[in-house]
Batch of 3 targets.
Target 1
Amino acid sequence: MYRVLLVDDEILVLKSLEAGVNWRKSGFQVAGKAHNADQALQLAAEIKPHIVFTDIRMPGMSGLELMKKMKETDEQILFVVISGYAEFEYVKKSLHYGVLGYCLKPFDDEEIDVLLHSAAAILEENKLKRQNSLLELLDEGVTEYSQHRVDQILTEAGLTAGEFHVLVALGKGTLELEENDRWVGFKLGNDKYGFFVQFAHPQAFERLLTSRFPDCWMGVGVVTTARDMKSMTKNLELASVRAWDFFLHGRAGYFRGNDPGREAMAARLVKQLTDAVGQKKFRAGAGAPRCLATEGKQGMFNDQGCAENL
């Protein structure tokens, strides 16, 4: 869900806007409400909103000043101006700050739905750009610029902590993360996906690990990483190895490691699979190689459509 921050000095306006719009239908949730610009800035630092609906005229800092300050810390944040008919000319000035649109009071639900649809399209495009940029930067290696850009991309996605989790999943689907978890995902290959996740609290992480494992995944490797690129790259590789532990354990699930012997065996199996794919020794049209023998011996593949004669 994309996070929305509502800002207006009139309590009734905030209540009307929150209750009168089906936010979830468009993929949004109201994450915070503020009665003035100063409170909005504090909330924005905590919840990292994707879009802000703000009044223009408020006591103290104006909506225009608020947008300017927020843009300084998050260039991709979106704005919708809410205003009365008498302030229409003033609203035009806000277009200078690149606002998505404006809503005149009283609110038109259909008009807001159209704006949310446009916002979702922009946010999805921005997300895709972040994912592609992140992978390219990690592939290029560590420089002062690349580390700065990686930090920037993570922050834009809401990952602000010094440590977070790396998850690599084999299969197809989505992770069942909670609304307040922050994450950025990317495709690593055929039926292989990576995620950097900052869980809202330790209980959210434990709930994920103990919840019913999704049928769409075979194995998910889990590692904790520091924020620097060297650690992220290393732990992305380690999570990839752990994801293949479903071969060794004979079951699907989340795998956190803790057994050096099994991890070494999994690493050898991953290399074996990689080499086999590189040499095109998999049968054409074969699906995910679920049938790899779990003994971890060199060349142990069976004849159920995975690989042969290694």
Target 2
Amino acid sequence: MSSRDEILANFQAFTGMDDLGTCIGILESHNWDLLSAVNSIVPQDFSDESQGQEISAPVQETGNRHEEAELVDGLRNPSDEAVVLENHLRQHNHVTPQQEPQPSTEKRRSLEHSYEEGGGGGEGGSSCSEEYDDARETLSDEEVEGDGEAITDDMFLADEEPIAKEPLIPEDCEDPFECSLYLSQRFESRYGSPHPMFFVGSLSDAVKEACGASVSERRPMFIYLHHDKSILSNIFCSQLLCCESIVSFLSIHYLVWAWDLTNEKLKRKLLDMVRECFGTLVSNNVDDIKPDHLPAILIVYKSKGQMEVRNIIQGQSDPDLLLSSLIVAHDQHEQVKETDRKEEIERLEREEMKALQEAAFRESLRADQEKERLKMEDEKLKQEKEREEILEKERKEELMRQMENLIPPEPDDTHTKVSTLRLRFPDGSIHQRRFLPSHTVANLLNFVGSKGYQSEEYKLLTSFPKKDVTSYHPTLTLEEVNLYPQETLFIEER
């Protein structure tokens, strides 16, 4: 007698019923007789439309290696209840309902608990560390006797979903950001929590985020490629991607990005993004992955300045092996980071030294330019000053000529009344000049100015008493200001 959890799984597979409570109630009412319970649900009437229809026995997905082995053994042995039941249904022209997606780990645990409360023992229950590969390989190599049909990979890869699932990414979604947002939301809706935190954005955005601003901020990328028509997808998602140890490790050490390849249009979009980010070779490798080898994982990280796909994991169903692969890839990435970090430190030191040298050169150049500017400024000021001095000299010379033309001629010896003035100039020279007593102060000042000593800059002083002749009214005569018959005058700078 098969264990009750296996009977329940087979009952759900043949009836297509998802409600665990209802299924358990029906089986208990038939004393856990699988054939009797199914006959009570499946109608006995023959449908003309089912004539000639090929009937295939669905394989119930489980995460337990022990259950998978029992299932394979049961399929090999025609006396197994499930096969007997299938043959019975074939004889009555009933089409066996297609199986529903495997319940999550939490549902399986709830089921085991309900068995115990109902008095059922059963060895079953799911664990996130059982493999599905052995069962699939066994089923692909051997045939089930009794109905003469061989069990092939078609049992693991259905041509179309019997019960329409909402795709992780809508077929008409164009924007990569929206696609990744749909995938994140629908993944949680389908498989529950915990699950990895998927990066929302295009593949190129995810690559930029994983690379980081510096070497210390880099993270390896975990790229998950999903396919709804691969039976391993449900197992992988529910028992590996939702395994707490894997979720925890990914959240700490990896950037997780995912895509759904079920739709051909979306697959083409992914290949274009992969080609853009990682090159044609990687894109071709992804394109070559068959649906029955999915899901696939790409481990990608930056090494020596470029992103490299370091590992492609296909069809993995053992969480321990997956976690081990992730740890190895992370350790390798840390080694690459350490090498790149040292190179970055050396590069930064070189750049800092270069920057200091360039700064010193710029400072020296600035100082030279400032020195040259000041020199040119001084030269310009000097030239300007010289030009002004020349102009001033020319102005004074012109003024001296004008004053000289205004000086009355010196009286000759025929004049008996003459004023003799002795003039001492600032340069120490002494000039003597004779004037008529009727000559004015202006005539005297013009004479002094013609020698280059204008009254605006110089004073003309008498010896005793000391008086400033330049302060007299210019129309006064020399006799009126007591500069007759003779006087000694001193010229001083104001």
Target 3
Amino acid sequence: MTGPAPTDGPSTPSGAGGPSPSGDGAPVVTSSTVLGTDWVLGDDGLRYRRAARVLLVDAEDRLLLVRGHDVDQPERSWWFTVGGGIDPGESARDAALRELREETGLVLDDAALVGPVLTRSALFDFYAEHCRQDEEFFLARVQTALDAAAIARDGWTEVELDVLDELRWWHLDDLAAETREVFPEGLADLVRPLLAGWDGTVRHLGLQRDD
């Protein structure tokens, strides 16, 4: 799974309960609960994991994105790519294919996945804590309108249903004009050069703050 959305709100101790951000006094499930056991404590003191993500494009050159929110600050949401954590012993490619299947219902073979085409290290400011994720992005295409229409969220887990809101195909011009946050920043411009095919160059975006 991808996890809850990054926010720039005030931080509370990792795993802390307490009142909801709305001030209604109701206990909330913190992001530390949602993040799961695949997040481990790194040398920098932040919880950390490796992740694989998929830039999934259809025959109309639209990009599939997920919208999610922070369970501790649900009024803030953002768009991001399909993907999630790499399991122990799993390759990044295998993780990308698995996450694609789980989050969209789309089953692709290894040959349909190109890359990694991008890498980055993302710092997330969740409402309850800060964490870091090292990401590899792969490129894949669905070739028919039927394949694009078949995308579904039937395989989402209970945790994913708590933090993920919808799947949507985006024309890149519309995505570039979107006022809601999109991660990675400048995603439309990152994808445009890949539409005609990947030239084999892995673009390293370095450290980015998703806040």
